[in-house]
Amino acid sequence: MSNAWSWYVIFLVVLNIGGCAWLLMWTARRRPGDPKPEDTSHIWDGDITEYNKPLPKWWINLFYLTILFSIGYLVWYPGFGNFAGTSGWTSAGEHDLEKARRDAQLEETFGVYADRPFAQLAGDPAAMELGRSIFANTCAACHGSSAQGAPGYPNLTDDTWNWGGEPAQILATVLDGREGVMPPLGTVMQGIGGDVSITQAAAYVRALRTDDIEATLRNDYMAARGKKYFDSLCVACHGPEGKGNQDLGAPDLTVRNTLYPNTLDSIRKTIVDGRHGSMPAHRDLLGETRARLVAAYVWSLSNSGGTEAPPGMP
């Protein structure tokens, strides 16, 4: 808070406290010439009379005590401009103390699951219930309550993984996040072959998702023409067969479970404008143990049949 705002706050506080004290003293005194309490002459219905009696002394004193309390409060706690108060209390400090207390409670609850292998966690109903709860609170906003995703948000219940579906890879995704970028190629392709080249490349990508790519290319002129554009611009990330690269987060273009709609218009938009997918890091939010629980829960969604950990499982 700047000094100007600090003085403004101090002025308002002093004005309000002083005004309350003055108003209380001014209204509590009786002055020469004031009518007696029963001499207001305000009478209704014959026996309903208005009096002008002062407040009892104990009530007046209670108001004064309230004013004194407010002054003591401002001495002890911050509220008087930039004056921090003699107690040193701050909302940030109170937050940190409460967070530390809650973290200790969480550590006690989740500590029994620390460093346990995914297969053990996946076979523990209590651990999976905790993982499901963490998922509902943290992940469902993007991936859906059923974890089946939405356009631009991966389906976590199938076996299609842009960044890898092994336990170590899933845990790394939860802890440190992922940043997937498909660069816009519209300007480049306009320069190579015009708008028709974009449609041809999109047709070829759609052909990759058919059961027989060779037969599709023989019967689809646009898709066959689009292969040369794919080979020159896309293989660096997606590979010569369109199988993708999990180290880069480049999706497998041959699968049916696509991140965006498998339509010609959607694929054209991806080529022209690019895509940018961001999975935020949760290391600071969840910590290692809770991240492991939710990662094990996600892993279990597509590996519910197995109880043995694959090689290299954390």
TrEMBL record:
One of its GO terms (biological process) is oxidative phosphorylation. Binds 2 heme C groups per subunit. One of its GO terms (molecular function) is heme binding. Heme c 2 binds at residues 189, 234, 237-238. Pfam families: Cytochrome_CBB3, FixP_N. Heme c 1 binds at residues 139, 142-143, 279. The keyword Transferase does not apply. GO terms for cellular component: plasma membrane. Its cofactor is heme c. The chain crosses the membrane at residues 6-26, 58-77. Pathway: Energy metabolism; oxidative phosphorylation. Residues 126-209, 221-302 form the Cytochrome c domain. Signal peptide: none annotated. C-type cytochrome. Part of the cbb3-type cytochrome c oxidase complex. Belongs to the CcoP / FixP family. Component of the cbb3-type cytochrome c oxidase. This is Cbb3-type cytochrome c oxidase subunit. The lineage of its organism: Bacteria, Pseudomonadati, Pseudomonadota, Gammaproteobacteria, Lysobacterales. The gene is ccoP.
